[in-house]
Design a protein that fits this description.
seven-stranded parallel sheet; 14 strands; transferase; single chain; Rossmann fold; alpha/beta; Glycos_transf_N_sf; globular; 18 helices; Glycos_transf_N; 2 domains; cell membrane
Length: 432
């Protein structure tokens, strides 16, 4: 049955009015970003609600994901859900060109991708008029009020999956309790990453009987793809040298990584660091840091080979991280030495790696907790601690194997929860 929410609050009406006024500016900003990324003009129009594909016949289940990390988990879930529902069709919306390109490469059966409409009246109406989804599943914290309200009014059953809210966001919504309850009441189901988020949603006004603590959906993502040709080529270049990885590093973190590497080179002069910046466009900044550190480097985008004197190989490309993880079982995961929130540790863990992290992994706290408890991950706070953690696993195969086994076991335990997620979605959203 459709929800029967209260009348729109004054704040929601104000939001609708302001976004309508700001729509032209928002469109120019979004369009410029898409143009810069090389998105064709026809596909740019999807942000205005103009569909570029036809709606398939039958049941259509709509997933909305924020960006790359959420997209990976959605793809895996759709594959499994498609097996459960062989006649269902799927629509995936995501806002970034990077996530769109990723989906195109790994498109699940009976699925298609569109950019989501701007959260204003015209685009939302055109989007819903065309696609007419039977159910809408929003992933993580993608809360677009008008899109949610209008979909619910059309009797689209909605779920918020893998729900995660920052403390700041929760406090902000608590200051607007009527509007929070009004928006949240349009969801039929909330599946959260942890108990804390479940409690926060209830405090914000979600109906307790609709909130269920779940698991981190990203743990259920398929392993990252590996290019076997590239893997073989890079392995040949590395030969028998010891190697470690610093992945998804952000500005302000490479200095710590390179300082740790300098210390490690004193013990293992032939040690190779494979450095994967989170944003490859920072390559010139990274090059300056390497020059300042006095470490010789090769760059993937330049076609450089790994020579015996190469101390750092900079993998400044997109879409090859799975190949790099297959090279080495020791991975430092960035976004954690600064207050950035961390990145998904299940990606290296699925590849068989033990993980090192800084303390700032608050976006993945519920994910790292069992990994650290199992010994599959360890936390460091400084360059000396990072060097010591890498040295421990480089020098002690038994310790490394034990850590890798702990990480793999933790991932496998999380994956077993996928069937529970699918059963809950099917039962609550009438998908069976």
């Amino acid at each position: 049955m459709p929800n029967n929410p209260d009348q729109p609050t004054l704040l929601y009406k104000l939001y609708c009015g302001l976004t309508s006024v700001a729509a032209p500016l928002a469109w120019r900003t979004v369009r410029k970003k898409l143009q810069t990324a090389g998105v064709p003009e026809t596909r740019q129009q999807e942000r205005l609600g103009h569909a570029t594909q036809t709606r398939p016949d039958g049941q259509l289940i709509w997933f909305h994901a924020a960006s790359v990390g959420e997209t990976l988990s959605v793809i895996s879930l759709i594959k499994r859900l498609g097996e459960r529902l062989p006649k269902a069709e799927f629509l995936i919306t995501s806002g970034t060109p990077t996530s769109a390109a990723l989906i195109e490469k790994r498109m699940p059966p009976r699925a298609r991708h569109q950019y989501p409409p701007l959260d204003t009246a015209g685009p939302v109406k055109r989007f819903l008029d065309h696609w007419r989804p039977d159910a809408g599943i929003f992933v993580e914290s993608e809360i677009w009020p008008r899109l949610i309200i209008e979909a619910s009014r059309r009797e689209v059953l909605l779920a918020l999956l893998n729900a995660r809210l920052s403390d700041r966001s929760v406090e902000g919504w608590k200051k607007r309790p009527k509007t929070a309850r009004f928006i949240l009441d349009h969801f039929t189901l909330f599946l959260t990453q942890n108990d804390k988020t479940a409690a926060n949603l209830i405090d914000m006004g979600a109906r307790p009987d609709r909130v269920q603590p779940g698991t981190n959906l990203k743990a259920m993502s398929d392993p990252l793809p590996v290019d076997r040709t590239t893997l073989s080529d890079i392995r040949a270049q590395i030969a028998d040298r010891p190697v470690w990885i610093a992945s998804s590093t952000h500005a302000g973190e490479e200095e710590t990584v390179l300082a740790a590497h300098a210390k490690l080179l004193q013990r293992w002069p032939d040690l190779l660091l494979l450095l994967i910046p989170r944003h490859p466009e920072r390559r010139s900044e990274v090059a300056d840091l390497l020059e300042s550190a006095g470490q010789s480097a090769a760059f993937r985008t330049k076609g450089d080979k790994i020579a015996p004197q190469t101390q750092v190989y900079v993998a400044d490309t997109l879409g090859e991280t799975g190949t790099w993880y297959a090279l080495c079982p020791i991975v430092f995961l960035g976004g954690s030495l600064k207050e950035i929130g961390g990145h998904n540790p299940f990606e290296p863990a699925q590849a068989g790696a033990a993980v090192i992290t800084g303390p700032g992994y608050f976006n993945f706290a519920e994910t790292f907790a069992p990994l650290i408890e199992s010994g599959g991950a360890t936390e460091v706070n400084s360059a000396p601690q990072l060097a010591d953690a890498v040295a421990n696993w480089v020098s002690d195969d038994t310790a490394l194997d034990k850590a890798r086994a702990g990480a793999k076991s933790c991932v496998n335990n999380q994956k077993s929860a996928l069937d529970d997620v699918i059963n809950t979605l099917c039962d609550t959203l009438n998908l069976a």
